[in-house]
Specification:
CATH topology of the largest domain: YojJ-like (1
Catalytic activity: 2 ATP = 3',3'-c-di-AMP + 2 diphosphate
Helix content: 40-55%
Number of helices: 12
Family: Belongs to the adenylate cyclase family. DacA/CdaA subfamily.
Number of strands: 7
Keywords: ATP-binding, Cell membrane, Membrane, Nucleotide-binding, Nucleotidyltransferase, Transferase, Transmembrane, Transmembrane helix
Structural class: alpha+beta
EC number: 2.7.7.85
CATH architecture of the largest domain: 3-Layer(aba) Sandwich
Oligomer: single chain
Protein name: Diadenylate cyclase
Radius of gyration: 26 Å
Number of domains: 2
């Protein structure tokens, strides 16, 4: 019986090659799997997905030309391959830059060190957080518009230079005074680094996302645009409705309450906090 089984297996496996798999091969497969998965997530969460679809359609067209031996099209495709490679780098430049920045943000040593979450690892204090929350809802109650950028790992020096340099401790009174109507500093954004306000009247990049509701004004578009190019948490107080909104990672949460804002800030309070634990929601107000 056993001999018959061996003969059966031998007949079906004869001539087949079974590679010898070592530990290093398994490690390489795991590394490649993680890289491909991260690239797919990156493409899915950025505007690169639409550009990639265009490239795939162009590739399909060239494949059809190769099947039917359309020599002129194949010659043009071959001659322009170098130009297309450079063009792809230029077109994907914002996404590539953001991907490299995200890679630089990762700190493996702090993530594996369980004793690293101390005062030195704190981005800002509880007092700063409460000052921001209090200022936002006091301004919202009287419909005073505001735009507050809370810096994380990526320094926002290039955006600070567009405004007026400050160096003062964060407090609700200072923030309210900055955004008070008809004051020299009320127009533009405030940038907060740690427990200090570093700059006011800063210009932020506007989002070019065409799916954004037409009801959103310049402040909300600037908040979304800023969150698309860096890891900052951007807080918006609407001048029309007094609602407080938060933009992060290219997504917007509108009309949040004080406890929700406090939770958003607490999730970035420490440098080694896990960004994957943070959940973004697009509220109904997005479509109104």
């Amino acid at each position: 019986m056993l001999a018959g089984i061996r003969t059966f297996i031998s007949n079906y496996t004869n001539g087949m090659y079974f590679p010898h798999i070592q530990i290093i091969d398994i490690i390489e497969i795991l590394i490649i799997t993680v890289i491909v998965y991260e690239i797919m997530l990156w493409i899915k969460n950025t505007k690169a997905w639409m550009l990639l679809r265009g490239i795939l359609m162009l590739g399909a067209f060239i494949l059809v030309a190769w099947i039917f031996q359309m020599n002129t099209i194949l010659y043009l495709a071959k001659a322009s391959i170098n130009v297309l490679a450079v063009a792809a780098v230029v077109v994907f430049q914002p996404e590539l830059r953001r991907a490299l920045e995200k890679l630089g943000e990762k700190n493996l040593f702090s993530n594996i060190n369980p004793f690293d979450k101390n005062r030195e690892n704190e981005r800002f204090s509880d007092e700063t957080m409460e000052g921001i929350v209090r200022a936002c809802y006091e301004m919202g109650s009287v419909c005073t518009g505001a735009l507050i950028v809370v810096e994380q790992a990526i320094q926002l020096t290039e955006y600070e230079m567009t405004g007026i340099e400050l160096d003062c401790k964060v407090s609700s009174q200072v923030l309210i005074n900055i955004f008070e109507h008809n004051t020299p500093l009320h127009d533009g954004a405030v940038i907060i680094r740690g427990n200090r306000i570093t700059s006011a009247t800063c210009y932020l990049p506007l989002s070019d996302n065409m799916t954004i509701s037409k009801d959103l004004g310049t402040r909300h578009r600037a908040a979304l645009g800023m969150s698309e190019v860096c890891d900052a948490l951007v807080i918006v107080v609407s001048e029309e409705t007094g609602l407080v909104s938060v933009a992060s990672g290219g997504r917007l949460s509108r009309g949040i309450n004080a406890e929700e804002l406090r939770k958003e800030l607490s999730q970035i309070q420490y440098r080694n906090s896990d960004p994957k634990k943070k959940k973004f929601t697009i509220r109904k107000g997005w479509h109104r």
